[in-house]
Amino acid sequence: MTVHSKCYMQCHRCTRVWSQSRLRAGIHRMTESNNNDHLVKSDDSQHPANLIPELCKKFWTLGWVTGTGGGASIRDDDLVYLAPSGVQKELMKPEDIYVLELSKQLDPKQRIYLRSPPSLKPSQCTPLFIAAFTKRGAGCCIHTHSQWAVLVTLLLESQSNKNLFEINNIEQIKGFGKGYQKQGALGYHDTLRIPVIENTPHEEDLTESLEVAMDKYPDTYAVLVRRHGVYVWGETVHKAKTQCESLDYLFQLAVEMKKLGLPWLSDIA
Amino acid sequence: MTVHSKCYMQCHRCTRVWSQSRLRAGIHRMTESNNNDHLVKSDDSQHPANLIPELCKKFWTLGWVTGTGGGASIRDDDLVYLAPSGVQKELMKPEDIYVLELSKQLDPKQRIYLRSPPSLKPSQCTPLFIAAFTKRGAGCCIHTHSQWAVLVTLLLESQSNKNLFEINNIEQIKGFGKGYQKQGALGYHDTLRIPVIENTPHEEDLTESLEVAMDKYPDTYAVLVRRHGVYVWGETVHKAKTQCESLDYLFQLAVEMKKLGLPWLSDIA
Amino acid sequence: MTVHSKCYMQCHRCTRVWSQSRLRAGIHRMTESNNNDHLVKSDDSQHPANLIPELCKKFWTLGWVTGTGGGASIRDDDLVYLAPSGVQKELMKPEDIYVLELSKQLDPKQRIYLRSPPSLKPSQCTPLFIAAFTKRGAGCCIHTHSQWAVLVTLLLESQSNKNLFEINNIEQIKGFGKGYQKQGALGYHDTLRIPVIENTPHEEDLTESLEVAMDKYPDTYAVLVRRHGVYVWGETVHKAKTQCESLDYLFQLAVEMKKLGLPWLSDIA
Amino acid sequence: MTVHSKCYMQCHRCTRVWSQSRLRAGIHRMTESNNNDHLVKSDDSQHPANLIPELCKKFWTLGWVTGTGGGASIRDDDLVYLAPSGVQKELMKPEDIYVLELSKQLDPKQRIYLRSPPSLKPSQCTPLFIAAFTKRGAGCCIHTHSQWAVLVTLLLESQSNKNLFEINNIEQIKGFGKGYQKQGALGYHDTLRIPVIENTPHEEDLTESLEVAMDKYPDTYAVLVRRHGVYVWGETVHKAKTQCESLDYLFQLAVEMKKLGLPWLSDIA
């Protein structure tokens, strides 16, 4: 469905009918009866609208999306599928998924959704997911509130470089690609570097510093958010998910290493 | 079913038949053949009698209701649905649920149940759940024995203000509403404050100090009980459950922070 | 089936036929074609032969019966149902269950099984389970290798009374009955005391010291085994299972308290 | 299917057709239409192609094969079934399994697979699994990235003998066999010794040092890999799996003991 600016549609919140120009202004949200529900209905278990709930259920058991925190988004060509805000992640259903067209999101203040679930709110993570899709060509982006990620950012606060998590000489580092538009994976002796950005009161305000971190560390597949969690992406759902798992593994290991007095960086060649 | 004081019914414990006036005195419990079983029978998965067992099963896997400890209650208008005492929480069934009318519980010493499971005992948590319903208009109240909650109360014992858990500058704090009859959620920089009351030998004797804590902290959605656990409520099942998850996340984080020498309060603006 | 001493049956191990007197000598084990398989076949989910596999599957997820360690036994009047040795506990089936008659186990060296699974070995825990059944009238006994139990016994090694785990003023203590042939549960202020016995190379050799500990602490529902695990029993399956859960909760809490410098005993009245 | 050197088959990677001699050179991989799919299709739940996915799903929940790390292989007489590289282990299917003939793997540089999944890569663990099969007659070999294993190898780095994990006087040690071609299990007082080898950038390069460790400790059923994980094997799937569980239990216990200042070796006789 392409939305024409001449169309009149019902606003999601006020339930009144407005012109597209007013809806595009972002004050109102369309809920026309034809809400493009076909975009989230598929018998294919690998369809993004089916995959996101399945992934979120798994993430809930891992403690990544506790108390409706965190989220996930999948990009399929120009369509972006997004978990909504405030939903119990282990109970999410395909009909809870938002859909938007990536190429039409010129102004982040005026987000247009091809498909909006009738009684939900879009996630504040949306602009951060979109940054991973547009700046890195990611196919999937995951945001967790994992306690291991939060603890790593807290432990870094007292270190000389508080804005960079570094670890090397751990096999699981090989679970990460070398970086944007590069072939192959990191090696065992390579140092994995994950930048840390400061948290902000409103999650969408993280976007700018996330993009700055992406520019400074063009090959990173993740950005830690202090006292908040982590954003992890990958070219495919498979890569985003397995890189997120590997990273959480390394964060947990790093916290345990700290408890046992073991350094994160070592000098093995 | 409305119970008339002229009715004669069988006592649950002594199996003899008594007048309602004697049953209302609280010495006996009715088990008349018409036990209002229809109140706990529904094909709707969102019916309180179906939701409570489902929630308790989930809570068991989280370690919140180990060894029959803890419990949960849902209020639907004037009807209150309660998990029974002493049942393995992961095995609970809809027919194990107690039901009472909130408006008829004038004297807590004379609890009248619209529906009592034949061979179970009502939970000692009942008066505490009722306090959340009557004083805060809660729609659901959860009681956990989470070890993280217990450890937080133990760690507080040696602190200057041992009756208040405080944490700030953690994203998950945004999982809590601002408070009773207030709109919106706490912010990232806000300090979450959860009062702690001392445990008593009989759980029902906690009611008075729980109510005092509610009066002193009118906006809290939870009260910690020293060396025991936590009571968490919310306007809806969704809010009570997700606030309970967020709180348990913060308790666990707080314990891990203590192990790593990290303070619960920080001075970030 | 009552086994008569005049019967001739096939030995389980050597596959030759022997008189009952030789089989009773314990050197051989009967595997007659009529192996009383009906004793472990039931459509009732509460039948011991169905309950033991279900419990063991749950215990496996709790880390209590890792690597075939641990076990469980249920007594139904004079019949005792036992998990076998060396089976993956999460995969156990009703046909893996041993059955014996409690009243006929006069000589522990000559164990007679009413029903033996064809290709399994009886558990070395058998005499310890039987001690709980005969000396305490238990209806169920559970043996776990929980790491929390093992760590508690290790921590006790350097304490003045290394043979007694004591904890008080924790709500979960109320999950235990007052003791053998006593009514009611322990109170919040009561001190829970679990004796510790030293491990032996052969598990069956623990029987004597387990019985000594039972005599010294007649009201205990559990005995810790140093560097090994714990035996927990109860009048019913429900009580044994929930007491085992409560105890494991307290062991885990005790280990975490030790890490945080918090004492197990406190002086609250 | 026996592959004849005169056959021409399609290469897996370049999709062109080559003679067997070229395919055997290891540069190309066959993907002939008859890919021996019957080798991984069975209704028997105990068939290796069904067992490996089931085991890997279980291992994923245990945190052993996070982020596609780790793996498992089963030998059935001369056929070896292998989990592929880079697959989400909890989602693996029978059709993802590689099969090779053990007796035909003379040159490890020229690996011939009887069956290769069309779009997957063989695991770098293959030569290490094969070492367990050929040098120790193992029936199953498991490789985990368990954090407990990694932490144990990190803790050993500062010890006098950094290449050997030793623990004694823990009941779970009885979960291990005495060793290669020996009868019976280790005793409670025996010291379990697991050699540690240094990690290498390419996993297959571990093969030589793994074999050296096997020669030096002929009775070990496991080899730790520093900062990487552990390889565990056994005569059967049952033994490899339960030994791997027992070992992970001991690694976790060892890490907790270190946190609590408890020594791994003690002097109890």
CATH structural class of the largest domain in chain A: Alpha Beta
Give the C-alpha Rg of chain A: 19 Å
Q: What are the low-pLDDT stretches of chain A, counting only 5+ consecutive residues below 50?
A: 1-8
**Portion in strands of chain A:** 15-25%
The CA-CA distance between the termini of chain A, in Å, is 56 Å
CATH topology (fold) name of the largest domain in chain A = L-fuculose-1-phosphate Aldolase
- Overall CATH architecture of the largest domain in chain A: 3-Layer(aba) Sandwich
Strand runs of chain A, count:
10
Please tell me what the overall shape of chain A is. globular
Average pLDDT across residues of chain A? 90
* CATH homologous superfamily heading of the largest domain in chain A: Class II aldolase/adducin N-terminal domain
**What composes the largest sheet of chain A?**
8 strands, mixed
Secondary-structure element string of chain A: EEHHEEEHEHEEHEEH
Total count of domains of chain A: 2
Individual helix count of chain A: 6
Structural class by sheet pairing and helices of chain A: alpha+beta
Q: Could you tell me which chain pair has the largest interface and how many residues each side has?
A: A-B, 22 and 23 residues
User: What multimeric state do the chains show?
Assistant: homotetramer
Strand order of the largest sheet of chain A: 5-4-3-6-10-9-8-7
Helix content of chain A: 25-40%
Binding site for Zn(2+) (chains A, B, C, D): 143, 145, 228
Pathway (chains A, B, C, D): Amino-acid biosynthesis; L-methionine biosynthesis via salvage pathway; L-methionine from S-methyl-5-thio-alpha-D-ribose 1-phosphate: step 2/6
GO molecular function (chains A, B, C, D): methylthioribulose 1-phosphate dehydratase activity; zinc ion binding
Active site (chains A, B, C, D): 171 (proton donor/acceptor)
